[in-house]
Design goal:
Elements lengths: L1 H41 L3 H7 L3 E4 L2 E2 L3 E2 L5 E5 L2 E6 L3 E4 L2 E2 L3 E2 L9 E6 L3 E4 L2 E2 L3 E2 L4 E2 L3 E2 L4 E2 L3 E2 L4 E2 L3 E2 L4 E2 L3 E2 L4 E2 L3 E2 L4 E2 L3 E2 L4 E2 L3 E2 L4 E2 L3 E2 L4 E2 L3 E2 L4 E7 L4 E2 L3 E2 L4 E8 L2 E2 L3 E2 L4 E9 L2 E2 L14 E2 L6
Parallel strand pairs: 1-6, 2-7, 3-8, 5-9, 6-10, 7-11, 8-12, 9-13, 10-14, 11-15, 12-16, 13-17, 14-18, 15-19, 16-20, 17-21, 18-22, 19-23, 20-24, 21-25, 22-26, 23-27, 24-28, 25-29, 26-30, 27-31, 28-31, 29-32, 30-33, 31-34, 32-35, 33-36, 34-37, 35-38, 37-39
Antiparallel strand pairs: 4-5
């Protein structure tokens, strides 16, 4: 009787052991398949991720070829203009781009291609060694180029930024173009540097606009801009010529402790309070035909021989 019971338990143990081995094998097979799936996903190219509508996060990589958003499916939206819609959230961090970054194509047959980013667009801490062209692009999500460095021309002309746009700590070694850009919410250019021409002509800023602690070394154009939120450019240096002519400032305007070389602020309307406390000018500054609705600000920090205030009114 004892031998039969012993045989029974031994057989049971063998069956249990066999089942454990089978379960281990199945588990290993599942894990292998999952690992292969993840590896395939990680190895997808930038283009494949865009086509699949997957969100993109790439960190610390170098791209020697062009990044071209205009290569994807296009829709004709008006005469001579077609649009690419990118639904993926785009995020590059500490990457280097040795090729161009393209979101606008003029086209050989008179049909321009523009890009609409349906989610966020981020290139934080990135280095761009070739041309960057986002002309006429629209970004529905947050835009973030914080601490990016541009060593070639940059074009954000006619762009629309629906949510907050961050360009804090960016450096521009060549020409920068933001003409006719529309910032629906905050525009943050704190601690930025511009080695050559920087143009924001006819840009519209609907939220707080921050240019404080920045250095403009080349010609700078803020002519015909419209600022619905506070415009702040304290402790900023304009080493060349800067133009603010024909602009509207609807809320607070602060250009305190600013170093001007040659500045034109002509035919501007300051609806909110404006301040130029402790600001200096090297050659000449013009406040001509301007309207100050809350009272003419204090210009005592400027050398009177270098200051023109013809036609001021309140």
């Amino acid at each position: 009787m004892l031998n039969r019971r012993t045989s029974f338990f031994i057989g049971l143990i063998k069956k249990i052991s066999a089942m454990k081995v089978l379960l281990l094998l199945l588990s290993s097979l599942i894990m292998t398949n999952c690992a292969s799936s993840n590896l395939t996903k990680e190895n997808q190219t930038f283009e494949e991720l865009i086509l699949a509508g997957k969100d993109i996060f790439i960190e610390g990589q170098t791209f020697d070829k062009d990044i071209d958003f205009t290569q994807f499916e296009k829709t004709l939206i008006s005469d001579g203009i077609q649009q690419v819609r990118i639904i993926s959230a785009i995020s590059f961090k500490n990457c280097t781009f040795n090729g161009k970054v393209i979101a606008y194509d003029k086209g050989e047959e008179g049909i321009s291609t523009i890009t609409a980013f349906q989610s966020s667009l981020s290139f934080t801490g990135c280095t761009f060694n070739e041309e960057v062209n986002f002309k006429a692009s629209s970004v529905l999500g947050r835009t973030d180029f914080t601490k990016a460095a541009f060593f070639n021309t940059v074009n954000f002309e006619e762009c629309t930024f629906v949510q907050n746009a961050y360009f804090r700590g960016t450096i521009y070694h060549k020409e920068l173009r933001f003409q006719h850009a529309l910032f629906m919410q905050k525009a943050n250019f704190l601690n930025t540097e511009y080695d050559e021409t920087a143009s924001f002509q006819k840009a519209v800023f609907n939220g707080e606009t921050q240019f404080s602690s920045s250095r403009f070394m080349g010609y700078t154009d803020f002519g015909n801009i419209s600022c619905s939120g506070d415009f702040l450019a304290n402790f900023t240096e304009f080493a060349d010529r800067v133009i603010f002519n024909n602009s509207f400032f609807y809320r607070r305007t602060d250009l305190n402790n600013v170093s001007f070389n040659y500045c034109e602020i002509k035919n501007c309307s300051f609806i909110g309070e404006s301040r130029f406390v402790e600001s200096k000018v090297n050659k000449q500054i013009f406040f001509e035909d301007c309207k100050f609705f809350t009272g003419i600000p204090d210009f005592n920090s400027f050398d009177t021989n270098k200051l023109s205030t013809k036609g001021l009114s309140k």
